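Input sequence (1138 aa), recorded before submission:
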Amino acid sequence: MIGKSHILRTALVFLIVGLITLGSVRGWGVDVSNETDRINLTADTVKAKVGQSVTIDFTDKTNSENTRSTAPLQVKIPEGLKFDDQKTADINGIPDDNNPVSFDDKTRLATINQTLDHPMRDGKLVLSVMSAGEFRVTANKIIDKQEIISNELEITGMEEAQNEVSVKKPAEEKAAIKDVVESKTKTAGIVAAAAGEVDVYDNATFRAALNNPTITVMNVTQDFVVTSPLYETTVYPTRPNLVINGNGHAIDFSNLNAYFNVSSSAPMILTVNDLSMFGQNYYGPLGLSGGSGTGYSKIVYRNISYTGAQLSAAYGSDIDIGGVVQTKQVNSYLNILGITIPVPLASGQATFEVANINFLPGSTYTGETLSAGLMKLGYIGNVDVGANATVNITTSGNGGEAPYAGIQTDGSNISVHSGAKLNITTDSASGRGGIRIDGSAPKILVETGAELNVKTNAASDSDKHGIYTGGNGKIIVQGTGKLTVNSQGSGTSTANALNMGDNASIDIGNMSTFNLYSDGTGNKRIVNLGNNALFKIANSASVDLNLNNSNTSSRLISMAGTAGKLQATTQRVLAWNSAGSSGKTGFNYEWVPMFNAAVSYSGGNVTAVTGTSYTMATQTSFGTNFRTQNFKRVLFDYIPDVTVTIGALTNNTSQTNSHVITGTATPNAYIIFSGSSAIPTGTINSPNAADTTTKYHVQADSSGNYSFSLPASQYFSGGQTITATALLNGKSSTVSTVVADNVAPNPPTLSAITDEATVITGTAEANSVVNIYNNATNVLLASGTANGSGTYSVVVPVGSRPLVPYTVYYATATDAAGNSSGHSNDVTVTDTTAPTASGIVQFFNVGDTFTSNAKSLLQNIQDNAGNSDSNLTFSITSLPDLSTAGYTTAEVKIADIAGNNDTISIPVFVSDDSTVRNGQAMLQAHNFLLYSYEIPDTDAVLNQLILTKSQAKAWEIPAGNDITAQVVVTDKGGLSATPGTYQVKLSVRGLEKTVTVTVASGTLEFEDVTDEISFGTHTISSKKQVIEPENDVQLAVTDTRPVTSNWHVTAKLIQNLSTLTGDTVTDSLVLKRDQLPDMYLNDTATTIYEDTTPANGTTIIDMSADQAQTLLLNIAPGTVKSNEEYTAQIEWTLEDGP
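Predicted structure, token format:
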């Protein structure tokens, strides 16, 4: 055999703190042209704690016609700072007998007197801080009727514990020169201590402030008297707001009426606080002129007292009364100087002539008049008494303004809100009424807990009624509100207690009071209503119409026309035929209860009566005898609410209250029970004759006690709600009690529990609370509630999942009453969860022996029944293949004693000299041979050739995933077609492998030759035998030459077919060829194949059976012997060339 080549093939295997700068802050002021004309104030500190001193430096550079002014410099020192005269004298070096600095405690002014001989143009003032706050110090002087003002110096007083945040140095401000605001008396005012605010303490300062429209706050610092001519009325500049703070002082306004013109474009609110006021002007001291009651003008009086003539003639404006306010009109008063001042025009003047008046919540007002009503309201004309306010009005005499009533209005509504009281009283010399509303559709409202009380104490003219409203009027009394009219000493007066026009409506609500009384001998009405009137009474506390009058033509109720009606829902009705009754005794008629009474009127006479009661006798009597024209008094009385209680009940049959109901109720009340099927139908008829179906169980005795027993063998069940309803005189009340459950539930049942359970189920008493406990520790696991059918499903807390196998649990049931059952059956938790683990990555070399310790291959072993070897077993169920390098796996089975198991895959990485690895990957690549002709032209193709030839493979650690596709050639080492050895680097995930690539120039050689040809065993035949080979007969020729040329193969027998003993058979091997003559092999080399179109690669010459040319054994008869083995040798020669 010639030249069988052996080829070594090597595989290449292949991865910024912001900085804030504060600039100087300039003061805002009015510049003057002369820089030397100024007064400047500075201080050694502008912040000081209470008790500390502040030193103020003043500089006076004012000039007057080029000569120094001798006008005094005045420094305004506000409250909270105290002038220290001794320290001031000491710091300025001033002798005691010649001190130019003085301080007036009332005006708060420090005066620095100037003389031409001894001018004090600069110096220091020492002040002590007396309280915390911000204090503004200014200085001024008046030269040639011009006021020169210093800069404003702000000093902050701090409490001891107050921290000083920053120190702000006052900027030097230019003094402002402004004209002095003059009053009619040309008296200079004092400059405001702050913008819009001024202290007033005499006539001059007060009038100056009134004249200055920029002033919005006046602070009265002492009592004073206003100087004014007789009945002066002066208009002052209007401003949106002006507040006069009296600070507990007094002003005698004398004859001044200071007023402000207002309009929708110039609104104003004038507020007076904490001031004692005196005045003689019949328009009042202060007023607003204009307005139309639409809210853009208002005067607010808060905590003031006023003595004198009328207080307010502000016809189109509103009045608000707050705090405690007193007004009293007098013929003379003693003023603050101790002088008796006559008030000749006080009599006949209403205290308020305004649009609307509001008594603010919680306020208290007391007012007295002289021969006039107290309020004369126009425009809208509402009176509003706020919640919990108290208003006391006393009017005297007759005539004057508001001649008809203490409150006389052309408007709409009088409202007395919750908890408020409005009391109107006339003295014994006044024939005036209480309220008169002449407006359209007026309404008087008395809310819950409020009172409106009118008391007249003298005979009234026929048109001066206790209360009067025009047409479409309404009176509404709500809740526990009360409206009373008490007309005493009325003599022959024919004025009515209540007089309302057509379409009047009176609505007296639940628990409300409406009591009207009048006496005398005149022909009058307690309630006199116009056409189409409606008087409604609904479960009211008291509607008492009492006519203590001897005139037989007088009537309790009169309604014009025939459409008027009186309606009452649920009341006790009492009637007296004679005058002079009081209380609730001596009545001639009693109708109780009366429901839905309806009484029709024609004038003062009843024309029809309907209504229902419990008995036909009462109902008939009411319809026949209720005639108010025959009564001097009728009282619609409140029927008390019915009360009822019920004793405790139990389901414990050993106790009486398991079958007997006891309790209390209003005496003689009828009681019916419900809530249990054990309660039978009652046997007592309803007291209401019209109710023939309801049967009551028991009637309370005269002391209010009752008792009712269930039939024999009947008991209440725990948790039942038993209701008792009591009825009497049309009123009913209901009370309920829940039957106490004093019997423990039966033990619940507990169903099977697995470790994976999310709920635990079973049965228990319906609606009971089920608790699940650990039997070993008695620790509560979870709770739930059984449904109405007695089944439960208790959720296992997430933090307790999965449950620990083999733990024993039990359940208890607790009913709504707190009774607890015994233990349920014990249940052991079944283990249904397989243990878990993860495999440990294994590294071996080819040919190593794998471990037999299955447990050593696992980590993170966990089982809910425990991880001990007594619970867990481990076995290797699949061994890895350690015969070849690469990635493989083993399998380990982990099982618990309950039979739950899992199979864990173990990653195994097998190494040899063709592999490398790091913590992320293992890379395999082989050295290999290349021929020059195989080197491609492009890098991409060359890289792929390297990966293919090196048989590069890669696996991810620990997952074992195939990451061969991620292998890259990182360095080809200069690989080219030039023969030689090259070091090529492959990489994946940071792992690198170097392979050796050998480049050869190339050869023509046998790649493979069939080593042995067998023709099998045959029997000698008398005929010629042609025998095919049993195996393939092939020659593989590889051509790796850089330049190819023709080549051919020859065959030659170097040994004929022979036995071991030397017997030879010639011409026995023949090459049979299609369309060519057979070729016998002999000792001469004969060409059997020729390639005239050579190319790199491997050519297979196949001479097997059934091929185009086949090597056959040709045996002629008699040429071979039996029982012999014949062999031969063929020499194959590969030759380069033709």
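Checked by second reader. The first helix runs from residue 85 to 92.
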